[in-house]
TrEMBL record:
Protein source organism: Tritonibacter scottomollicae
Record's keyword annotation contains Iron: yes
Pfam families named in the record: CCP_MauG (PF03150)
Record's signal peptide: 1-20
PANTHER family xref list: CYTOCHROME C PEROXIDASE-RELATED
Compartments it resides in: Cell envelope
Ranges annotated as spanning the membrane: none
Protein name as catalogued: His-Xaa-Ser system-associated MauG-like protein
Classification of source organism: Bacteria, Pseudomonadati, Pseudomonadota, Alphaproteobacteria, Rhodobacterales
Domain Cytochrome c: 50-180, 251-397
Source organism, top-level taxon: Bacteria
InterPro entries cross-referenced by the UniProt entry: Cyt_c-like_dom, Cyt_c-like_dom_sf, Cytochrome_c_Peroxidase/MauG, Di-haem_cyt_c_peroxidsae, MauG-like
Gene3D superfamilies: Cytochrome c-like domain
Length: 407
């Protein structure tokens, strides 16, 4: 198992503080490489600048929604680290950002908005909290089944929000259900709306060599995917510079790294180039609102596989820029990063069961059952260690390429 980089070495390293700083640095460096960290350049795919330009305009355009009132950039905002800063996204009918948006009375999308850091980079192949779109090798899995219009999972993922009723559609006539037929109808309307915008039409002609109104929706989705890949591509963080270059970490950051790869067992799941195994695990976290499955419940991965063993499991989230993307967890139930970290090893210390409804408690009991099988359930952390882990997470930051304009 990846995390078992000699626990013995780590114990020695922590105990002999001053003289062993070099030893501790090399332990963390080796552990990071062992756990799959690669230089940032090895995660970045080549992107086409003309396609990126169309994608950026489409990403920011309200013409991408049936009622021309919401854009991708409404929920994926720079100010909140490419997410929206609220526990559950607010879609159609919502106004403004942050707390104002929560109070605006729009439709709740019962999941926490995911940020874009590294999304769609090399090896980033499983999307959404429940992994409902994934592509490994030739196998593309999505709700479109055999009707998927691309073999690139990020393109398919980008085609979903514009046809989700609560997210970007609303009630337009009879189109209140999410079917392949209504999706096609909506896509055709969106292409017309986008083509009517002169800036988008110009950029599309340059990128595709075809008049904008002759394009298909999947062409715009390809462009949006290209923009996400380009704009949020992993850049060298301070941690990359430490592992692969001459960068140094402070004492607290170094200690945090030792806990991350050692005692805390974080890297058993948060591993690989993006600090995610792209697998599904149970970390107890109640739904902050109605829940994907109603009544404050979210079955998570079970919704995709129907396997009872997957109930309450969610994709390990990547950790780049994680300190900028509060609140945390699939339901946004934790507003502080320290709370969600503590919830991994001692959930009863942070959950207020009195405040939950009875079905929500049932849901958490199910999660606890699977959680007990996760090794992280046996790693108790002190408050000081928690702080050091947070110092470590602060070394995983980098900036996006271009400013995103939100409506
Ligand atoms: C109403 C707010 C909202 C809007 C508008 C929105 N998103 Fe999202 N986005 C979310 C939420 C919430 C999630 C997490 C959903 C889940 O996992 O079930 C998400 C997740 C994603 C992901 C998955 C990221 C990952 O790491 O797996 C992608 C890709 C994405 N959105 C792209 C887009 C694109 C492209 C648009 C515009 C076409 C868009 N989003 C519009 C709220 C929104
Ligand atoms: C057993 C696998 C596993 C281990 C080990 C693990 N995590 Fe997680 N982590 C997850 C999963 C799954 C989630 C999402 C839980 C949810 O939303 O239901 C998560 C969520 C998080 C989040 C919130 C991210 C976000 O965007 O919402 C942070 C921060 C985090 N983990 C840090 C850590 C740290 C630090 C450790 C070590 C103490 C650790 N994790 C160990 C699987 C794991």
């Amino acid at each position: 198992m990846k995390f078992v980089i000699s626990s013995f070495l780590i114990a020695c390293a922590i105990s002999t503080s001053v003289a062993a700083s070099d030893l501790r640095s090399s332990v963390v460096r080796e552990a990071a490489i062992e756990a799959g960290l690669v230089p940032s350049s090895a995660t970045r795919p080549k992107t086409d600048p003309d396609l990126v330009s169309v994608g950026k305009l489409a990403f920011e355009a309200t013409e991408l929604s049936a009622g021309q009132n919401i854009a991708c950039a409404t929920c994926h905002r720079d100010r909140f680290g490419s997410a929206d800063g609220i526990p559950n996204a607010v879609g159609i009918g919502g106004d403004g950002a942050g707390d104002i948006r929560v109070a605006s009375g729009g439709r709740t999308v019962p999941r926490n908005t995911l940020p874009f850091w590294g999304v769609g980079g090399i090896g980033y192949d499983t999307f959404f909290w429940d992994g409902k779109v994934s592509g490994r090798g030739d196998d593309l899995i999505s709700q479109f089944g055999a009707h998927a219009l691309s073999s690139d999972p990020l393109v398919v993922a980008a085609m979903i929000p514009p046809v989700e009723v609560d997210e970007m559609v609303g009630d337009i006539g009879h189109l209140t259900t999410e079917t392949v037929g209504s999706a096609t109808f909506i896509y055709n309307q969106l292409v017309e709306q986008l083509a009517a915008d002169p800036d988008i039409a110009d950029a599309a002609l340059r990128a595709f060599g075809t008049s904008a109104k002759d394009l298909k929706f999947e062409n715009y989705a390809e462009a949006i995917a290209e923009f996400i890949r380009f704009n949020f591509a992993v850049q060298d963080t301070r941690f990359h510079e430490f592992v692969f270059g001459k960068g140094k970490l402070t004492e607290d950051e170094l200690n945090g790294g030792l806990i991350f790869y050692g005692k805390g067992r974080c890297s058993m799941c948060h591993n690989g180039p993006y600090f995610s195994d792209f697998n599904f695990h149970s970390i107890p976290s109640p739904s902050a609102s109605f829940g994907k499955n109603g009544f404050g419940i979210d079955y998570g991965r079970f919704n995709v596989t129907n396997d009872p063993n997957d109930r309450g499991k969610f994709r390990t989230p990547p950790l780049f820029n994680v300190l900028r993307t509060a609140p945390y967890g699939h339901s946004g139930a934790y507003s502080e990063v320290s709370d969600i970290i503590l919830a991994h090893s001692d959930p009863l210390a942070v959950l207020n069961f009195q405040e939950l409804s009875s079905p929500q408690r049932q849901d958490v009991y199910q999660q606890l059952r699977h959680w007990l099988e996760e090794p992280v359930s046996q790693s108790a952390l002190t408050l000081k260690e928690l702080d050091q882990l947070i110092s470590f997470l602060a070394t995983l930051e980098f900036d996006s390429k271009r400013e995103v304009r939100s409506p």
